[in-house]
Write a structure and sequence with these properties.
CATH superfamily: P-loop containing nucleotide triphosphate hydrolases
Oligomer: single chain
Strand content: 25-35%
CATH class: Alpha Beta
Number of domains: 1
Number of helices: 8
Bound molecules: adenosine-5'-triphosphate, magnesium ion
CATH topology: Rossmann fold
Length: 257
């Protein structure tokens, strides 16, 4: 078995508030492998965003250990961590977080600014990412000239442009209507089929239904980790039961003749 892209061991995060210690995360242990499609669900305040921010190296744990693609995050210097984050993680936020005065193309090129590559190469990669989310034609628009769903597609292209090991979304469809949510989920499904590892925080059951594994948080603890049968597995068992029916039918026919 390959090394998991994410390995958390007994991770904790606490905040001191008015002399009291509040445990936002307690004892979270978890492995996620390449090409898993994971939903993180749970009540408001249960620690979902705290966990996702740690996974995306936007925040650090206070205890326990976190290995991202085999790299121990806690022992890294700030600039090493920034590089690792830039290479390994694509983050997608509920509120899109696009630069308002920059074009769609400039927004998508932005994570490549720190890479040693020519401007032409940055542009080529950004255009390819826009093509993947179906927004090539809108490359010169400003974010406020786009619909909510299109803005989120730009944010997904920006997350994809660095070809990260994992895509993380914190309620990525939280600001979208149900039709647009369905479109964006189709895009995540497609990215998953293409081999991406996807982890989405969500309040919505329909979104969790797209994922193959559902992690449930309550009071900062991981209380359930449920894996669903894959679509391939479902098809396989349907095929097997059809075969069984055909065999039964054949033996019944033999008895009759
Ligand atoms: N900087 C902070 N200082 C103090 N407490 C914090 C801080 N950040 C988060 N918390 C607390 O940690 C807990 C978990 O917060 P988190 O944002 O992870 O919840 P969540 O599950 O994402 O909730 P929601 O579904 O509402 O987004 C909350 O009770 C929150 O108040
Ligand atoms: Mg949250």
């Amino acid at each position: 078995m390959t090394v998991p892209v994410i390995q958390l061991q007994q991770v904790g995060k606490q905040y001191e508030m008015a002399g009291e210690t509040f445990h936002a995360l307690s004892d979270v242990s978890l492995d996620i492998h390449a090409n898993e499609y994971v939903a993180i669900i749970g009540p408001s305040g249960s620690g979902k965003s705290t966990l996702l921010n740690i996974l995306g190296c936007l925040d650090t744990a206070d205890s326990g250990s976190y290995l991202l693609s085999g790299n121990a995050v806690a022992s890294m210097a700030e600039n090493q961590l920034a590089t690792l984050r830039n290479q390994q993680v694509g983050f997608i936020f509920q509120s899109f977080n696009l630069l308002p005065r920059h074009s769609v193309l400039q927004n998508v090129m932005q994570p490549l600014v720190y890479r040693l590559m020519s401007a032409a190469e940055r542009e080529r990669r950004a255009l390819a990412a826009l093509q993947r989310v179906g927004l090539f034609e809108k490359k010169h628009h400003l974010p406020n000239q786009l619909s909510g769903g299109q803005r989120q597609r730009v944010a997904i292209a920006r997350a994809l442009v660095t070809e990260p090991a994992i895509l993380l979304g914190d309620e990525p469809t939280g600001n979208l209507d149900s039709k647009t949510t369905a479109d964006i989920m189709q895009l995540f499904d497609e990215l998953h089929r293409q081999g991406h590892t996807i982890i989405l925080v969500t309040h919505e059951q329909e979104i969790a239904d797209h994922c193959q594994r559902v992690l449930r948080m309550v009071d900062g603890r991981l209380v359930a980790d449920q894996r669903k049968q894959s679509h391939a597995g479902v098809l396989e068992s349907a095929e097997q039961s059809m075969l069984q029916h055909t065999n039964n039918l054949a033996s019944a026919t033999r008895l009759l003749v």
